[in-house]
Design a protein that fits this description.
With 125 residues, the chain is an alpha/beta fold. The chain has a single domain (5-124), classed as Rossmann fold (3-Layer(aba) Sandwich). It has 5 helices and 5 strands, in the order βαβαβαβαβα. It has helices at residues 14-27, 38-47, 64-73, 91-99, 112-124, and strands at 5-10, 30-35, 52-56, 82-86, 104-107. It has a 5-stranded parallel beta sheet, with helices on both faces. Helix 3 links the parallel strand 3 and strand 4.
Length: 125
Amino acid sequence: MGKKKKILIVDDDYSSRRLLERIIRSHFKCDVMQAKEGSEALQAMFMDRPDLVVLDLHMPFMNGVQVLEAVKESSALREIPIIACTGVSNDSLVRKVLQYGVKSYLVKPVEPNTVIEKITMVLES
């Protein structure tokens, strides 16, 4: 029996974190962690290495792109798969985050089936 997967949700919006957690828990048997901003996310990633991070790109203080930059520079974190999530559908932003190695991209408001499909794809790869 494999170990239980850990998924970290990073979003400054409480409602968005709760919605993603409900979607994830409804389909996956996993531990769900939450962080409300970038530096808290990095700390959680170092302390309790998740199997996947769902990362909001637009947050105050340390935004998602800054988190991606820090992850890419860290040999301890760079292999953690990340799904970027944002309320802004912007081709140049998508290209930018893909350069940081994100595995997939979600646009808010998220569709539960899309979230499940993308998380399944990343966890099974």
